[in-house]
Amino acid sequence: MSVGYVGKTTNLSREVIAQQAQAEREDQWGNMPGEIVDYDHTKGTATIRPLFKKRKADGSDLPMPDLMEVPIDFPRSGNSAITHPLPAGTKVNLRPQMRSMENYDVDNEGTFSDARSSNLSDMRASISGGDSLTDPLPNVDPGNVHIRFNADGTHGLRGSPDGKFKLEGSEGNIFDFLVQNVEKTAEGFTLLGTEPDLVHRAQYAEIGEDLTDLAEKLRAMVL
Length: 223
What we know:
It is a single chain. This protein is of the alpha+beta class. It has helices at residues 13-26, 102-107, 174-192, 201-221, and strands at residues 32-40, 45-50, 53-55, 61-63, 67-73, 91-96, 123-126, 145-148, 156-159, 165-169, 172-173. It has two domains: 29-126, CATH 2.40.50.230; 139-223, no CATH class. A hairpin with a 5-residue loop joins strand 3 (53-55) and strand 4 (61-63). The protein is elongated. This is Phage protein Gp138 N-terminal domain-containing protein.
């Protein structure tokens, strides 16, 4: 037996330590994609299926269990938030916490309850991330900020860097409808201002001019 081998085994001590270190790393969890199974909007938690499979010693894959009551993180401040519907199948980004989170989630108290670290039990889910590159977001607008109200982006709010807007609903661009309304009203008051027998003809003409100016400003902001 070569010098340096441990007992009657064929493994060097450094090999045993390396295997132990690798096993410890594989038992710690980092960020991973997941998908919503069920979402409880009243509690702010979801059942989430991790889209990750652990490799067993025999080389086969071990599917992960569904994680229960995972907190969902939306963009939020002390007095505002942006929320989203989360139907089943929605992709999320699962993020482990450094230590156990029971005390924080129950009593808003940050002392950890035990020594576990980066554990599956302490995952939180963010709606930012989790999608595979095989399923990229369709119809991305490369030139404008776009807050989408549906999956394909046909309904939503767009804003350009130069301050123009587009609010797209089921019937079209709401800003465009608003401009058309003001333009038609301006046209009507302008015509009233040309009628010879109206008592307030001058005022009608003035209102028509003001509405025309307003319509021009609105039209200039339509994306």
